[in-house]
Amino acid sequence: MPKNDSRSDLDPAFSSDSVEIISSESVFKGFFTMVRLRLRHRLFRGGWSEEIERELFLRGEAVGVLLYDPSCDLVALTEQFRTGAIKRSAGPWCLEVVAGMVEEGESLEDVARREVLEEAGSSVRDLHFIHSYIPSPGGSSERIHLYCALVDLQGAEGIFGLAEENEDIRLRVFPRQNIVDAMRGNYAPGENPIDNATTLISMQWLELNREKFTHMTPPA
After folding, report:
1. All structural domains of the chain
2. Rounded distance, CA 69 to CA 149, Å?
3. What is the pTM of this model?
4. How far is 132 from 112, CA to CA, in rounded Å?
């Protein structure tokens, strides 16, 4: 087993310089992009792997924002059609946090504020960082950065999204406890209404941290 000389015992044994990209070929470019890689990498047992071929879904970075109203203990989630959920038994309209892709030259906080305005009609001043993660490292390059924004959610429900981007987004407001109860509910696989990682991670973070927001008033 290779020795890990990094500062944390949670760090992996190898780094990016332990991978050799032999070739990269674009196999699809449309709404999304996919490339075919030929590569080899170092092995735990020593030496290098044989050349292997893998397809990689190029997705870039995205930002997700959980909207929380501490005064009324409310959470807002978007509801919209998702192509990847077409075979979902509950149907392809999913409840999620506000989210959007990072465009060139944008900071993560700028993306968060832009998306909250577009998908929820609200302006955001304070953003609380939650976590950053790779949702599908086996085949996608996407990294998602999660935030929590404190907002006034009374009367916030409505239909939002950019028509030129074919967005049809319904903002829904729930008592926080309703979402928590759904997450804990005894649903059959594929039937829980809260079944995507961005929402699950964000809500679990809120459960661990919401006490520090209890006496805070969201910006008007």
Report:
1. 16-58 (no CATH), 61-213 (3.90.79.10)
2. 8
3. 0.88
4. 13
Treating both helix axes as pointing N-terminal to C-terminal, what angle do 197-209 and 176-184 enclose, rounded to 10 degrees? 120
How many helices (H) and strands (E) are present in the chain, helices listed first? Answer: 3, 11
Q: Which two tokens stand for residue 108?
A: 């993560």
In whole angstroms, what is the distance from residue 59 CA to residue 96 CA? 18
Residue from 138, 151, 131, 144 nearest 205 by CA: 131
On whether 119 is known to bind a ligand per the annotation, the reply is yes
55 carries a ligand binding annotation: no
Question: With the C-alpha atoms ordered 39, 43, 46, 52, is the resulting torsion angle positive or negative?
Answer: negative
Query: Cβ contacts of residue 153 below 8 Å, gap of 6+?
Result: 67, 68, 69, 72, 74, 75, 76, 173, 218
Strand, coil or helix: what is 168? coil
Q: Look up residue 132 and give its two tokens.
A: 């950053």
> Is residue 99 part of an annotated ligand binding site?
yes
Q: Does 115 appear as a known binding residue?
A: yes
Residues with catalytic roles: 165
Per-residue pLDDT of the chain (220 residues; tens, 9 = 90+): 444 454 678 888 999 999 999 999 999 998 889 999 999 999 999 999 999 999 999 988 999 999 999 999 999 999 999 999 999 888 899 999 999 999 989 999 999 999 999 999 999 978 999 999 999 999 999 999 999 999 999 999 999 988 888 889 999 999 999 999 999 988 888 789 999 999 999 999 999 999 888 766 666 6
